[in-house]
Design a protein that fits this description.
The chain has five domains: 2-62 and 119-203; 66-114, no CATH class; 210-329, no CATH class; 335-525, Hypothetical protein af1432 (Orthogonal Bundle); 558-670, Orthogonal Bundle (Isoleucyl-tRNA Synthetase, Domain 1). The protein is 49% helix and 14% strand. The protein has 25 helices and 18 strands. The strands form six sheets. It has a five-stranded antiparallel sheet with strand order 2-3-1-7-8. The protein starts with a strand and ends in a 9-residue tail after the last helix.
Length: 672
């Protein structure tokens, strides 16, 4: 068995693209091997700023013989379709194709009867097309070549069974050479054994395993923080990002000038994290400490002193901008900024941000009672929640919108309640983000998200496929999370109706929007093991209360997971099938025609459940479980299709009564 090593060496690949690129390389190789009915024992991918690579072990040296038939386009298909089929199969003309007929007409058929040749030869033919067809979110050309890559491609290593797989693409010839760290150890490294790849590069100051780099960053940064009696602020995504920026991570610690420490910590963290990729530290009391950690890609003789000084100088300049905006913005109140919101467009068809805040304020007042919020405070926060969009700080650091509004509200003397609500009203901004901390914040956050959804639904701008440019799915999930995590029971149909009225929608698509939220709820509940069909069965009852829908979906799932529930679902399907086939009209069963003890018992059990409207859902399901025994007995002992037409009709009516009783608890037709 043989091993294969592939490395594509380039200028720096953006950190966010590296993992997906390594995965794509693996998938392309797997697809190539699968076409020859070959699989590797193991494929390990690697990625670093200047390279993506994989090591595939346990491959045969020779491919197996292959016989295959490939169906092509119809003989009378457009010429371009036929040319595409020929090109995809490396043919110049259709002369070598057979013509075969089926019900739809005559079509081309390619018979492939290939003797298995050396896998190295197949790889040499495969690699140029694989490299040329590599997909990047953004790519570029360089020099005079036509090859496109995310950054200029500098070298290709392709080693199979210890020998170079020869090919050429874009003026580059494959080889057995890789390169070490471009500053510390830039010399070429020749390889003859694929398994030497990781170790040889580590000796040349390149860690190709991203997880190893991440661990090295955490270990080094944590140790540096401990030296100043601090702890590294948790930031998994920044750890991952910085690991994609360096091939040999060297954590270094610097100081933040004391003059900046009275600026809001969110500003300091944003400047350090977003703009400089620095890690923040916290002291033992959890307060932001006057230090930062940067991850260098260099080992220097002065132990990083010059790098630290340079980073401190850059940070000082950036923080000076932040302090300037902080001081300048506080010279104007949030209230005085409201007229400026009329100059900011929310969406071309939906008016200005000023219009939006007026709608949010009305919705927040409506929602306040449902979430236990102070109506006046919620309304005030809603009126001012977007005012910080006009500040210099948010213009420069847009990720701080809302947060800075909270600080400025405090400075204006609006109080903690209003300030916190403004600060939190964008929450939750993602699955890992917390919901607003106060009822007033929840009211404003819900109002903002509901207004956004109603607005885009009113102009028929909905998410399609994977495209969601206005983050409407995130808004819906935010609403769901706030309601579920607080247990707030809100009549969404009524609130959505009011939201559409504020947009003066002539035919408000309330049901369509509720269906969209229900779909997001299904996605959310799927993570808890509740399938979409169970949610559909509960949603069909007509509730627009997210908390009730989620609770009842969980209760229905638990019921169906029991033996009684599973058997009743089976009985429902059987009864419904019988009645549907018989096209029964569903009139009430006549008691005197119930001759068999089992049908009398079932009728009595159904009748006992006739008045369950005031029961909570769990109790209703528990009552439904009492039908299990009489239903089983009925199907065991009673022939529904009796020869006597009246008896048969009456038994069908009894089954219809069973179906209707069960449908009061859920639409069992929708449960798969």
């Amino acid at each position: 068995m043989a091993d294969l090593l592939i490395e594509l060496y380039s200028e720096e690949i953006p950190a966010g693209m590296q993992a997906a690129a390594a995965d794509q390389l693996t998938r392309k190789l797997e697809a190539f091997l699968a076409a020859f009915e070959v699989t590797a024992e193991q494929i390990t991918s690697y990625y670093a700023p200047q390279r993506i690579a994989l090591l595939a072990t346990g491959l045969p040296q020779n491919l197996p013989d292959r016989k295959e038939q490939r169906k092509g386009p119809r003989v009378d298909a457009p010429e371009k379709a036929i040319e595409g089929f020929l090109r995809a199969n490396g043919l110049d003309s259709a002369d070598g194709l057979r013509v075969q007929e089926d019900k739809k007409g005559a079509f081309y058929l390619l018979d492939i009867d290939e003797k298995g040749g050396p896998l190295a030869d197949a790889l040499a033919a495969f690699m140029p097309g694989m490299v040329d067809g590599f997909q990047w979110p953004k790519s570029m050309r360089w020099g005079n070549g036509s090859l496109r890559w995310v950054r200029p491609l500098r070298a290709i290593l392709c080693l199979f069974d210890g020998a170079t797989v020869p090919f050429e693409i874009g003026g580059l010839h494959s080889g057995n050479v890789t390169y070490g760290h471009r500053f510390i150890n830039p010399d070429a490294i020749s390889l003859s054994n694929a398994h030497d790849y990781v170790g040889a590069l580590e000796k040349a100051n390149v860690l190709v395993d991203a997880q190893v780099r991440e661990a090295m960053i955490v270990e080094g940064a944590t140790a540096l923080a401990a030296h100043v009696d601090c702890a590294l602020a948790e930031d998994a995504s920044l750890i991952s990002e910085t690991a994609g920026l360096v091939e040999w991570p060297v954590p270094l610690i610097g100081k933040i000038d004391a003059a900046f420490m009275d600026v809001p910590e969110e500003v300091l963290i944003s400047v350090m994290r977003t703009h400089q990729k620095y890690f923040a530290l916290r002291d033992k009391g959890g307060k932001l400490a006057p230090y930062f950690i940067t991850i260098s890609n260099m080992v220097t003789e002065d132990k990083g002193a010059a790098i630290i000084a340079g980073n401190e100088r850059v940070l000082r300049a950036r923080l000076s901008d932040g302090r300037f905006f902080w001081d300048q913005d506080r010279k104007a109140t949030l209230e005085s900024r409201l007229p400026s919101l009329e100059k900011i467009t929310f969406q071309a068809k939906l008016g200005t941000v000023g219009d939006k805040t007026q709608r949010i304020a009305k919705l927040a007042a409506l929602l306040a009672d449902y979430v236990g919020a102070d109506k006046d405070a919620a309304t005030r926060a809603a009126q001012l929640c977007k005012a910080d969009l006009t500040t210099g700080m948010v213009y420069e650091f847009p990720e701080l919108q809302g947060i800075m509004g909270g600080y400025y509200a405090q400075h204006d003397g609006l109080g903690d309640t209003v300030a916190q609500a403004i600060c939190d009203h964008y929450k939750p901004s993602g699955p890992s983000d917390d919901i607003p901390a106060t009822p007033e914040g929840m009211a404003v956050a819900l109002a903002d998200k509901i207004d956004t959804l109603a607005g885009f639904w009113s102009i028929d701008e909905k998410p399609t496929g994977s495209k969601d440019p206005y983050a409407l799915r995130r808004a819906a999930l935010g609403i769901i999370r706030i309601l579920l995590e607080t247990g707030a029971k809100i009549p969404l149909r009524e609130v959505m109706g009011e939201a559409f009225k504020l947009y003066k929608a002539k035919t408000p698509p309330v049901d369509d929007l509720l269906g969209f939220i229900a779909d997001r709820l299904k996605v959310h509940l799927r993570g808890q093991g509740i399938s979409h069909d169970v949610v559909n069965a509960v949603f069909a009852l007509g509730s627009d209360d997210v908390v009730e829908l989620a609770t009842q979906s969980a209760q229905l799932k638990a019921f169906l997971d029991t033996e009684d529930g599973a058997n009743l679902k089976t009985a429902f399907t059987r009864a419904n099938g019988i009645c549907t086939q018989a096209k029964h009209d569903g009139d009430k069963p006549i008691e005197k025609l119930l001759t068999a003890p089992e049908e009398q018992k079932l009728h009595g059990a159904i009748t006992a459940l006739a008045d369950d409207g005031d029961m909570d859902y769990a109790a209703r399901l528990a009552q439904l479980a009492t039908l299990r025994a009489p239903v089983d007995d009925f199907f065991e002992a009673v022939m529904v299709n009796d020869d006597d037409e009246k008896i048969r009709h009456n038994r069908l009516s009894l089954l219809q009564a069973l179906i209707k009783t069960m449908r009061r608890a859920a639409d069992f037709d929708l449960i798969e």
